[in-house]
């Protein structure tokens, strides 16, 4: 049995970095999909796919040039071809999106506009690389090459059409991306107020994320254009450019596979530089991407949530085996602050004057009415009906009266018997502690027309109880 020993001085370091380059960019993928960052998603796709391909090649062909997986090599060389323009194209889409944000003319972005952006990005980052890969057959001299310690590699022979079909496109894409980058920086400096207004209206895109996207695209731009230009220079000077004779001449003996030992390809300085730079570029792009987005505040929050979810399941399973979870320290159960922690006289939650996303009608003595209809009712009425979706309109429905509405937020069952009453006034909010009833039942929402209704004050209560009683108020059964 033959034994092969690797001669690559970077082995296994390259394999480790390629594996990390495949895994790490996938971690924030779901966050960018939720934010409709299609250009960033394509960047993740191409960098991860390229690193996976390089990782497999570095293991299979470490120290040998045997054609042990011809079908894989057919796939591998097309991944290499596609990634050579897919990564610059994704960077172009990122810069294009940043430019469109910087020149924003409308704060609201409709779903139709988002879908159109995704479609355009998919054409640039998906369809164009596929067409590019298909066109490489024109200048593909034979099936593929196998470089020792590198793996499968496209066999593009050095002829003049190859520079127009293959070599020039990364440079062109990089230059177009550079134009977008400069224009976005210029628009950002000129329209900063509109830019900040746009970001404030879109939770998925924060100023921090915008700057990180800009830095990622700019860094990728600084890598793409110089390296692609260097590759063109090396190809043009390392060996003579062969003339294009005919299709039959270019594809003569197309099925052959050239196996090139390291001692041969590494002896030529230009070939060695071109192969190694191309090889390390994809892991570098993946690491740069993760450095920008893998340690951000939202990423750390997701890591903490994932850890606590796994830890809860682990300790739940461990409890069946008699393991007891520590009450303090790193492995303690994670808890989040809740309104039940508020003490009497020390309110900690400030209500915002926004509509409640709940609607629960309550039977009125003579019919069904909404909160806004309660204006026409007698001020001595003991109960009314709440359409909580329109709760904020109540304050303005008492002309000449006090414009405030009181919402009571009660903590869950089992928490201390205190609660916070939110007195919502247009433009401001204050809080007052109230006493909590003691009988826990299913959640209900009720409205009390108190004796103070003449002053424009109505108390809207949400609490796990069958009824609520207030001083000077009637009792509403639910």
From TrEMBL:
Keywords: G-protein coupled receptor, Membrane, Pheromone response, Receptor, Transducer, Transmembrane, Transmembrane helix. PROSITE patterns: PROKAR_LIPOPROTEIN (PS51257). GO terms for biological process: pheromone-dependent signal transduction involved in conjugation with cellular fusion. GO terms for cellular component: plasma membrane. GO terms for molecular function: mating-type alpha-factor pheromone receptor activity. The chain crosses the membrane at residues 12-31, 43-63, 75-98, 118-139, 167-189, 210-234, 280-297. It is a multi-pass membrane protein. It is found in: Membrane. PANTHER family: PHEROMONE A FACTOR RECEPTOR. Belongs to the G-protein coupled receptor 4 family. This is Pheromone receptor. It comes from Mycena citricolor.
């Amino acid at each position: 049995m033959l034994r092969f020993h690797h001669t690559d001085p970077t082995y296994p370091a390259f394999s480790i970095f390629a594996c990390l380059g495949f895994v790490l960019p996938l971690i924030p993928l779901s966050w960018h999909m939720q934010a409709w960052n299609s250009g960033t998603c394509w960047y993740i796709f191409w960098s991860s796919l390229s690193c996976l391909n390089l990782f497999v090649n570095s293991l299979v062909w470490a120290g040998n040039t045997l054609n042990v997986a011809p079908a894989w090599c057919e796939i591998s060389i097309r991944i290499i071809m596609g990634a050579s323009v897919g990564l610059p194209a994704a960077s172009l889409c990122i810069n294009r999106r940043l430019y469109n944000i910087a020149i924003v003319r409308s704060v609201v972005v409709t779903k139709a506009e988002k879908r159109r952006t995704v479609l355009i990005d998919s054409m640039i980052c998906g369809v164009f690389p596929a067409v590019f890969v298909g066109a490489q057959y024109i200048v593909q001299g034979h099936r593929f090459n196998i470089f020792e310690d590198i793996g499968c590699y496209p066999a593009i022979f050095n002829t003049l059409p190859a520079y127009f079909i293959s070599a020039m496109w990364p440079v062109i894409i990089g230059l177009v991306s550079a134009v977008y980058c400069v224009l976005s920086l210029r628009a950002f400096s000129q329209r900063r107020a509109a830019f900040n207004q746009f970001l404030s209206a879109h939770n998925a895109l924060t100023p921090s994320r915008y700057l990180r996207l800009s830095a990622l695209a700019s860094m990728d731009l600084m890598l793409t254009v110089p390296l692609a230009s260097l590759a063109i220079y090396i190809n043009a000077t390392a060996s003579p450019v062969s003339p294009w004779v005919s299709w039959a001449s270019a594809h003569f003996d197309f099925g052959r596979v050239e196996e090139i030992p390291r001692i041969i390809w590494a002896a030529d300085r230009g070939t060695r530089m071109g192969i190694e730079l191309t090889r390390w570029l994809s892991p570098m792009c993946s690491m740069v991407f993760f450095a920008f987005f893998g340690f951000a505040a939202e990423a750390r929050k997701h890591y903490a949530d994932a850890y606590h979810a796994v830890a809860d399941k682990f300790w739940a399973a461990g409890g069946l085996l008699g393991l007891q979870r520590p009450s303090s320290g790193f492995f303690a159960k994670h808890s989040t602050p809740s309104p039940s922690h508020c003490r009497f006289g020390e309110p900690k939650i400030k209500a915002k004057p926004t509509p409640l996303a709940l609607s629960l009608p309550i039977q009125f003595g003579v019919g069904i009415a909404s909160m806004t209809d309660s204006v026409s009712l007698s001020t001595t009425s003991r109960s009314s009906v709440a359409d909580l979706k329109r709760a904020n309109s109540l304050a303005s429905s008492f002309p000449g009266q006090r414009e405030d509405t009181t919402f009571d937020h009660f903590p869950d069952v089992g928490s201390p018997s205190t609660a916070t009453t939110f007195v919502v006034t247009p433009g401001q909010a204050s809080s007052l502690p109230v006493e909590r009833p003691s009988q826990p039942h299913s959640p209900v929402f009720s409205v009390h027309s108190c004796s103070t209704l003449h002053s424009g004050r109505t108390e809207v209560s949400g609490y796990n109880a069958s009824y609520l009683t207030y001083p000077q108020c009637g009792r509403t059964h639910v």
